[in-house]
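Structure in, sequence out. Go:
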């Protein structure tokens, strides 16, 4: 009963936070949440996890399961930000942290821009599998889709990213030439 009973015990939100807050923050940045808003969305993710009673071991790993929360909350956060923007509620917004801007080099910006062109399902699958090392089985379980769907999403995400990065590379000399006029 020892290890098997312990393996099926839920993991509390506080423990999940200690173990995986860095992962969730990186995921949110890669998913497109502005750096100045990461703390708010991160906090909201773990508040919701706490309200749900933590993570119960199953086919989805804790990180895939947390990413599913992060996707939903990032989308909600984005919608609320658009509403605030339309209503003129952007006053008092903190400027982007200069240290964060310095860390982002040109290649990361291009990848980020290309990721934003993907639809949310493809973007999520790509980030979790390629950048965070999650298994397809875990991603499928967390998203409630067949594993073949995850494979398909990865295939299409990779194809679209290659196209977007190639388009950006081809456009660079034209943009520079136009800037010199």
């Amino acid at each position: 009963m020892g290890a098997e009973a312990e393996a099926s015990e839920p993991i509390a939100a506080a423990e999940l936070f200690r173990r995986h807050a860095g992962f969730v923050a990186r995921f949110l940045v890669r998913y497109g949440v502005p750096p100045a808003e990461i703390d708010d969305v991160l906090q909201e993710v773990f508040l919701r996890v706490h309200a749900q009673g933590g993570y119960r071991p199953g086919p989805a790993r804790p990180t895939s399961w947390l990413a599913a929360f992060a996707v939903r909350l990032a989308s909600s956060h984005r919608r609320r930000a658009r509403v605030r923007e339309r209503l003129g509620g952007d006053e008092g917004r903190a400027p982007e942290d200069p240290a964060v801007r310095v860390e982002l080099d040109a290649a990361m910006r291009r990848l980020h821009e290309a990721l934003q062109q993907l639809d949310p399902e493809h973007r999520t699958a790509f980030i979790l599998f390629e950048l965070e090392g999650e298994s397809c089985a875990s991603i499928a379980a967390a998203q409630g889709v067949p594993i073949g769907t995850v494979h398909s999403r990865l295939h299409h995400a990779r194809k679209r990213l290659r196209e977007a990065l190639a388009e950006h590379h081809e456009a660079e000399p034209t943009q520079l030439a136009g800037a010199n006029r």
